[in-house]
Design goal:
29% strand, binds zinc ion, 7-stranded mixed β-sheet, ADH-like_N (chains A, B, C, D), 329 residues, 6-stranded parallel β-sheet, Rossmann fold, homotetramer, binds NADP nicotinamide-adenine-dinucleotide phosphate
Chain lengths: 329, 329, 329, 329
């Protein structure tokens, strides 16, 4: 079968590979749609640990075409979305229920072959059934949405609170929707006019940057969601929080890079800074929200490509009007 | 009466002042014991906002000797401890129940005359009755303990968790006791051998600094309580937290001073950093804990002085074996 | 001035009374709109403790016309809504921040003269300023909304959860709106076709009763909000909760009346039952939600009457198409 | 090998059975100590669903003697304690992280062969490694302790709170220890003088029943832990809670049996009633608490028997001085 594989740092190609076979407890899935994520680009550049050669793609949906030994939870033809993060169940973190912090975490599409291929095999319990009415296309957004849902849980937004989202990529625009859904009055700071329009269609106010956000909400936001992963937004996030407010960081900054923050300011205004990593126990809820229409994937999918276009798209910097690109079978 | 007053930045003296009279809703208290706090030294140096001339002293206990108009909650002779923080009740923060963030907060002993005098008048509802069996001397520790209790609430320690306390002053040693009481396995990092001994008597393990703490607990602490208020411990606090752990800052660093932190490290280990400011709704609980003996004030009171010694003591740097100094009537 | 006063149990009349004068710390308010609440009927029948003679009315808005001594937070002409519950600030509950459980709670319109009169005096900090753009009429709904907001805080609804509201009175219809705002998928059970229509306009699905709710959601609701205050809905509430779900009771059943519940069922499904009483620290948020339009008072106000009609309206049973009746100046 | 097996409702015998072999992903454990639990007696009487024939015993420790295919987390000779509850990982509850509510939960010693035999095979990730210094004997108490820890998490005890435990069996005496560890002031109500003594040695006050508890604490307990599983204690639990307090039910009452409670009383005092079922994500913490000595198993093990004595012991009613009986290899 054809698969888009990372061969070594800097080398990504679509080539023929043997078809995977499901191990005991696994399902074999024919991939329908697979999203390209910033992490894929980080993997290509070697900025994120992984052991090539490996088929990338960790945000995908598809149909079950074969069952490994002992799988009774699924049937051929089932429509599923992959939750790529496989926790071991037995390490200290897993035993505490902190599965996203599993010491032996393996991610489909990072630590083992993923969804940028025609077929992908992975544990049945990570193949979540699509709720009735959810398209395979929208289901490809479930993984990033689940990460945002985890952040929203940590943010603990109360109806009526002011929520400021920094960064208008997929993560930012999903957070905009979730914060609205949680009853927040939402503002997005993004440099891209195109993304501003999408956010406004989704019910948010928009500003160009932190300075404009400060002008619009001089008392700050009850909750700031950092979704850009750059030093500037990270530094601003707690400063833009209101007295008693909180900032949640989702954006991934480079390892080792530091940010200067002022503890006095945080203490006297009793601001907290939290972080949200991956999608523990949120993937099923993400699928339900996409199925009900409470969160909309449609406006975020700005382009669909074939597998053969993937190497070129992965190597280029996404344009300012690009949000989520799907590889469609 | 005699009172220790801040006359202007840098000038503190004990002198004769008119006796205060209780306004409607206030009680007049004959001060028994009043603790000296780092904040008093900050006020003296002008590092903390206040409007001199004013009688300092915000940690004190005493006996009610007169009642303002309309006070029915207290009687002459009642033994009370002062909760110095008077929230307005009507600002945005107060309306949300975040009284420690009150926009019009006035503190007895900072914004109005406090407990370094023979008598002090303040609102009756801030004069908390001493539980049976609690000495006026121990009750003078209720205010700092209440601040620590607020931090422990925010820390949300579960029985069996590892708790690392940075800084062995009064705040650190009270946090040691509270973290033990909450079921934590507690380690204190302090440079002072004298303070190590106190902490060990209180049931904690001790180390000299962050490096030793890291060696002792290589996986980090579930909760780190920063109680020193210096850049080094602030920087270390989240780094010393275990995967999924949290750091709580109580220490007050100078306004404007920054600390360099690494967001990547926080995100991938899902560490959060919280702050705890003042004593909202915790002063009554603090008194109860002192009364039951669950928290011990005794080992922390290293010296008692008369009012006349106060100017000298305030102006000197406390020695390494000093913890809490009380001004005793 | 004219005022609607409870003279003794069973006797309510509109008559001339002396104009109140604001005590120190109080404001005098010219009442604009005052809502009639089920509690007013309970007071009339003697089913709820109160010390007549007293002017009833605890849900009201108006304009400040005079200031008591020492009031600097308000000015003549300010538009305000009354938070009727005055906590003492000094009892054990108040010291813990549980102000709704204050041991000396006094409610305007219950324990002291309220808003069914031309003028009403009460503490300035209980006179909340109306946000810009909020009408005095809508502001009269702030008190019941604040009670519902407290319940929603306790319910801790996550986006996407199923929420079932039992009872379609004012409380039920406000809870419908708040649960929707919190991201819930909401169903209201009400016997009244008129109330069903209002709820549907507000975005909820509707059913006639618990049996229909069970048929519609066989796995139950993540959260059930009991807003009727009768034994049948109380009994059903935890049974209608899904595995791991929770029921929150707002409805006030008669003192002494019991309900039979099955602990085994709760335990094996890990269902909890919580209660929500009054409006601690939520009145300001309620006003903000009304002002932003996030919660709509309009569809719930089914009738406006003059003060003189009040005795008749209070003594009759409200019809099935009645939701909130306002007394308008 | 010899094993104590439930053959059908009412029939339990120790007999020879084939030695189990570990499936892929499983470990084979030589059982060292296995606790007898009230549930075992319920299973014998048919009061709890299970499919005989099956080897009972769900609270046990032992040594790994063989590894199924693909097990790399364990080695021969490892000392482990079994967490008997195997969640499927893929059902709606598991996907939400509510593993104790798994729709396909299978318990070792209930739904499949357990620890009342010489050997037992079960999934490696349910074989938790014993921390250094923990004896196999004490480790046999980890499962009930983990259930209590879950309840204590739900109870959310703050240092200094009053905690009342109803019922002095193993669950009650473990809750006593955990509530003390969480900083609570603890009282146990038990009819047995023998159990009173144990509780007093563990640092609790004791009373004979609810009436005495009410007399001792007229304002009630901040938290009541119901650990008896009978109607009387269930009915009393929320009544014995203080204003704003909470009751947590751990005791298992018979299915279908109801209790009469008064909603008005709960609402006006804002009392909540929660339930705690099984041991989700708490077994590892339970082992750590036993290892550190923070919780003591010793005083609770009142008798050790051989496998051959098991049928007789299981069929008799435990005496008033019996707490936990272990079957020791
Ligand atoms: N925590 C988690 O579990 C998790 C999961 C998935 C992704 N992530 C991280 O979340 C972040 C966002 O992901 P994404 O997929 O949305 O990425 P994306 O589509 O590349 O969006 C990133 C956004 O960051 C903003 N940005 C980039 N550089 C900036 C700069 N110098 N100044 C200001 N803003 C800048 C841009 O916003 P504007 O163009 O709108 O200004 C851009 O749209 C990434 O760091 C990603 O690694 C985290
Ligand atoms: N958040 C609140 O509500 C609240 C309330 C009260 C006080 N505070 C703050 O909490 C902090 C502690 O108060 P305190 O009364 O305990 O003060 P303290 O008695 O002066 O103790 C401060 C401790 O910080 C440590 N420390 C000081 N300089 C250090 C350095 N350069 N490196 C490492 N450690 C250093 C010292 O610990 P060792 O000698 O043990 O090494 C010292 O004992 C202060 O910043 C105070 O302003 C906050
Ligand atoms: N917890 C608090 O802080 C708080 C605050 C305010 C009010 N309350 C209480 O909340 C409850 C609702 O208040 P409200 O102002 O909305 O009262 P309401 O307008 O009288 O509405 C009560 C609703 O309960 C339902 N109901 C009454 N009898 C019923 C029966 N036998 N079977 C089924 N449903 C029945 C009716 O719903 P349908 O006609 O739609 O079927 C009715 O609309 C009252 O008990 C009130 O005292 C509590
Ligand atoms: N929720 C969970 O996850 C979980 C886990 C394990 C067990 N459980 C349940 O927890 C309960 C306690 O378990 P256990 O192992 O401790 O049982 P146990 O050793 O049999 O103790 C039960 C205690 O309940 C008290 N009791 C029994 N009948 C009573 C009555 N009529 N009136 C007053 N008290 C009575 C007795 O206390 P005194 O003799 O001291 O008065 C007895 O010691 C059981 O229902 C069990 O099924 C629940
Ligand atoms: Zn793991
Ligand atoms: Zn205020
Ligand atoms: Zn009070
Ligand atoms: Zn499951």
């Amino acid at each position: 079968m054809r698969a888009g594989r990372l061969l070594s740092v800097g080398r990504f190609a679509v080539l023929d590979t043997p078809e995977p076979e499901p191990e005991p407890g696994e399902v074999l899935v024919r991939v329908a749609h697979a999203g390209i994520c910033g992490t894929d680009r980080h993997l290509l550049k070697g900025e994120f640990p992984c052991r090539p050669p490996v088929t990338l793609g960790h945000e995908f949906s598809g149909e079950v075409v074969a069952l490994g030994e002992g799988v009774s939870s699924h049937a051929i033809g089932d429509r599923v979305a992959c939750d790529p993060n496989i926790a071991c169940g037995g390490c200290a973190a897993c035993l505490m229920g902190r599965v996203n912090l599993c010491e032996r975490l393996v991610a489909v599409g990072v630590g083992r072959d993923g969804g940028f291929g025609e077929l992908c095999a992975f544990p049945a319990h990570r193949a979540l059934h699509l709720p009735a009415g959810l398209s395979l296309r929208d289901a490809a957004l479930a993984e990033p949405l689940a990460c945002c849902l985890h952040a929203i849980d940590i943010a603990a937004i109360q109806p009526g609170e002011r929520v400021l989202v920094l960064g208008g990529g997929v993560i930012g625009l999903l957070c905009v929707q979730l914060a609205r859904l949680a009853g927040g009055e939402v503002m997005l700071a993004t440099r891209s006019p195109h993304r501003r329009r999408i956010a406004e269609d989704l019910g948010a106010e928009t500003v160009a940057d932190a300075a404009e956000a400060r002008a619009a909400w001089p008392k700050g936001a009850d909750c700031v969601l950092e979704c850009a992963g750059v030093a500037e937004t990270a530094r601003e996030a707690p400063r833009l929080a209101a007295r008693g407010g909180r900032a949640v960081i989702l954006g991934v900054m480079p390892a080792g890079e530091t940010v200067s923050w002022e503890p006095f300011d945080w203490l006297f205004r009793e601001v907290s800074l939290r972080t949200a990593f991956l999608n523990p126990f949120t993937q099923g809820r993400a699928l339900a929200l996409l199925a009900s229409g409470a969160v909309r994937a449609g406006p975020l999918v700005t382009r669909e490509i074939g597998l053969d276009e993937l190497p070129a798209v992965l190597s280029e910097v996404p344009g300012p009007s690009e949000v989520k690109v799907l590889v469609t079978a």
